[in-house]
Amino acid sequence: MGYRVVVLGDSAGWPYKDIIKADLEADDRIDEVIDIGLGEGADPVLYPNLATKGAEMIARGEADRGVFICGTGMGVAMAANKVKGIRASTAHDSFSVERLVLSNNAQVLCLGQRVVGVELARRLAKEFFNYEFDPASHSKANVDAICAYDGSLEE
């Protein structure tokens, strides 16, 4: 079974969102891409509202992972992390994307359209799906500590 992925881009990130969405739709590892906005000509929506909506979908089990894009990636990351059980972070290099999943079991990759070039953003989004968290790894204790803090730890 493949991933169900929610993608979003605010007014500063929708062009990359559209490109990455097309890449994910062509990826055999992805079963479903759920686009929650924005797009060209769309009415503006505050990025915190988009990011929390996408993060809530993941927290409810309606999607497995997300790729959220704004100008820097930082705003959507901060907003997504307000949702109980969500671990989201910006990443601008391959090693960080790897560690996002393997060390932190993050569900959301956040990218900044004003920070990275489009080809790097595409590569990082693709790489995000190369990794699966190993619950037997030494990183589980750290992830459990994060989850215990927000009350989302499930034993």
Automatic annotation (TrEMBL):
Molecular function GO labels: ribose-5-phosphate isomerase activity
Pfam families: LacAB_rpiB
Protein name per Swiss-Prot or TrEMBL: Ribose-5-phosphate isomerase
Enzyme Commission no: 5.3.1.6
Keywords tagged on the record: Isomerase
Broad class of enzyme this protein falls into: isomerase
InterPro entries in UniProt: Rib-5-P_Isoase_Actino, RpiB_LacA_LacB, RpiB_LacA_LacB_sf, SPI_LacAB/RpiB
Family: Belongs to the LacAB/RpiB family.
PANTHER family documented for this protein: RIBOSE 5-PHOSPHATE ISOMERASE (PTHR43732:SF1), RIBOSE 5-PHOSPHATE ISOMERASE-RELATED (PTHR43732)
Gene3D superfamilies in UniProt: Sugar-phosphate isomerase, RpiB/LacA/LacB (3.40.1400.10)
